[in-house]
Amino acid sequence: MAQPLVTVVVATRDRPDLFRGAINSILGQTETAFALVVVEDGSDATHRAGYEQVLADLRARLGDRLTVRSLAPRRQGHGRSYATNVGACLATTPYLAFLDDDDAWIDPAHLARVRRMIDAAAPDMIMANQRAWFRGEPVDRDIWLSGLEAQLRSRGRDPDEQGAFAVAAEDLADAGGFCHLNCLVVSRALFDAVGGMDEGLRWEDDRDLLLRLSDQAERMLHHPAVVSRHNIPDPDARANMTTAVSMLDKRLYQLRLLDKAALFARHPAIRAHGRLHKGYVLKQVAEELAAARRWRDARWFAGQALGAAPTWKWTAYALYCAVRAAFSGPARPPSGAAAGGSDAR
User: Fold this and answer.
1) pLDDT band at 340 (very low <50, low <70, confident <90, very high)
2) Domain locations along the chain
């Protein structure tokens, strides 16, 4: 067998049945020379037996190409970013790939194509795309990088013989989406250079990672293949990071990652992306606060949004919030706790 070039990192917590599906999709790859690191993020006792069964099968199949690390139990878990960073530290290959434990790779040729692209160009990172599903039905809209191929072709760019496009930070900043973690392959050297994932983020941590990687990478490739299926979390469920965090909590995480891009990115396009999208998020926060009739808070965030992304329409909205705030009753404390969301995955 060829020497593995890629380690697949899977972080998981409290859902062994979904984890088994993700693992089966990795084992179904035509490229068999890969390593696998599983980081089990302190699952509770009711789920451990299910994990042990899957891991026993994996050990028999992969032998020393499998590494498993179990983290100490913690009420809210350590989070995907922390667990993924632990997995990356345990990897010994020059490249890292990732898969969420409730998703699946649907292209059996994904890792084989990645190997050919690495052999041909030794890129810092490779990005593909995925399809979203919700409650068992495919979502028929562009998400992530589904429009990037057309954007590149419109600029006169052609793919290489592997079907991949060379991309720059400016292309990704204009793409209208970002590469999900399931579709990313990155050199271990670049992942380490940016400090891995931000362990303070509990939402859109993969968006933050992509912005920082694309700011530092020298050679990036995008292959438009749809390689994975992403199961959009059901808002009625609580067993995942996305649904366990309130919407205002999510906006705070977005503001953090966009502030980092606006302040610290080397590329002007990424700094501009951070500033522009921060304005959008501030507007969303103001609208959500207004919907909750928290007019004084809505007025403050509407003013912040007006400074970040001024338009005549938003000027009118900010004035409307100010008028409503002037005639509203005493300010009420927020009903949710920004730091209190569980990240159970």
Assistant:
1) very low
2) 6-231, 247-326
